[in-house]
Design goal:
By secondary structure, this protein is an alpha/beta fold. It is about 40% helix and about 10% strand. Helix 8 (about 175-190) links the parallel strand 5 (about 165-170) and strand 6. The longest helix has about 35 residues, at about 340-375. It is globular.
């Protein structure tokens, strides 16, 4: 241990009493109290700070896999730039003493409109993987969408949850149906409250950044829901959604009463088909810029999807959300809620469950502040008038 590491460890032991109290107050009641974030995490004042801290902690190949986008990472950049290009138009002298960030989604009342998107291989950044993420999501009062490329079993993950949670599916094709029927039974028994079908990744996109870093999965990884797909040598080129079709989605719809959200929608015609297929929601997503490069930023596509869907089903959005103002902008353009991916993985790497909870608290606090400064007291008051020029 070098001097810098020793100092950081000492600081973590001393901790911040405020963070410790916050962690204890928000700890899930079915697990040990959350540890306070490390001394370095206490210096993270926004989600961008967490990325900088995570880069120092996560092994370089794994960090490049998580942070990277497809090909030249143009869409990855556009996701952020499009949010930055939207200007806000606030109202003043509004009584904002009390605001309400709650949102109804699929019959559930959520504390605020931010969900944890499905992300793969959490044990890359924390030894307890998705179980630790679940504890952080519970402490942060957020719905967690567990990935099919999870490194922990849902039975263990669900025991760590006190908030609603959903499960994400990639390949729903005919050859996987026997497996999927068994999985649906497991999910039902474990308390899963919804499904997210990711449709935009029939194969993995060009991942030059991961390739240059020589990323591969550790030999001891268990990926229980993709035992036949995960390779120990290389993730690039891995078939993910495979040849899944609208007929397969219809079959899945017939097999479960759980709400199903279709993720990866960027085209208006696909949004209309999702409604016809009986989907309970749509997630406008470009997979965090990780699959097909040069597709548009999700916030620029959102208004067209909203027009195509109307009020028939809720539309959510992910891709580039890093600030409370981003959440406000997405809701102003019609999204019911947003999802974040990389930021909470960075929080997990820096502070475990407490780091995840801290990421959520920061984003929630920024969103509340943005609502007050814009003169919006409820989510219903957030509309296109909040966006300058709209």
């Amino acid at each position: 241990m070098n001097r810098r590491t020793l100092l950081a460890a000492t600081g973590a032991l001393l901790g911040s009493s405020l963070l410790e109290r916050a962690a204890a107050q928000n700890a899930p009641n079915n697990g040990p109290p959350l540890k306070s974030p490390s001394a370095s995490a206490a210096e993270a004042f926004n989600l961008f700070d967490f990325e900088g801290l995570a880069r120092q902690r996560i092994p370089h190949p794994a960090y490049e896999y998580i942070a990277g986008g497809a090909a030249d990472e143009i869409t990855l950049r556009w996701n952020r730039e499009a949010f930055d290009a939207l200007a806000l138009r606030p109202r003043v002298l509004v009584d904002i003493e009390r605001i309400d960030t709650g949102v109804e989604l699929f019959g559930r009342r959520l504390a605020f409109p931010v969900l944890l998107a499905p992300t793969a291989f959490h044990r890359l950044v924390h030894p307890d993987g998705e179980v630790e993420t679940a504890r952080g999501a519970s402490a942060g009062e957020a719905l967690f969408v567990v990935s099919s490329l999870s490194t922990r079993r849902v039975e263990d993950i669900s025991r760590a949850m006190t908030q609603p949670w959903c499960f994400q599916l990639f390949d729903i094709g005919r050859r996987r149906r026997e497996f999927l029927m068994g999985l649906l039974e497991t999910l039902k028994a474990s308390g899963c409250q919804g499904l997210v079908v990711t449709a935009d990744a029939p194969v993995t996109g060009v991942r030059n950044r991961s390739d240059r870093a020589h990323f591969s999965l550790p030999e001891d990884f268990e990926t229980p829901y993709y035992p036949d797909r995960t390779t120990r040598k290389q993730v690039g080129g891995l078939p993910v959604s495979g040849s899944s079709t609208w007929a397969d989605l219809a079959w899945l719809r017939s097999q479960t009463a759980l709400p199903i959200m279709l993720k990866g929608v960027l085209h208006e015609e696909d949004a209309k088909l999702a409604v016809k297929a009986g989907m309970n929601g749509i997630i406008v997503s470009n997979h965090g810029g990780r699959e097909l490069d040069t597709v548009p930023a999700t916030i620029t596509v959102l208004p067209r999807i909203i027009r195509a869907v109307g009020n028939r089903i809720p539309v959510l959005l992910d891709g580039g959300v890093r600030r409370g103002t981003d959440v406000l902008k997405a809701l102003a353009l019609g999204a019911r809620a947003v999802l974040i991916g990389r930021p909470y993985l960075y929080g997990l790497s820096v502070g475990g469950a407490a780091g995840v909870a801290q990421v959520l608290r920061i984003l929630r606090g920024e969103f509340e502040m943005a609502m007050k400064l814009s003169g919006c007291r409820t989510l219903a008051e957030i509309n296109r008038a909040v966006i300058h020029g709209k």
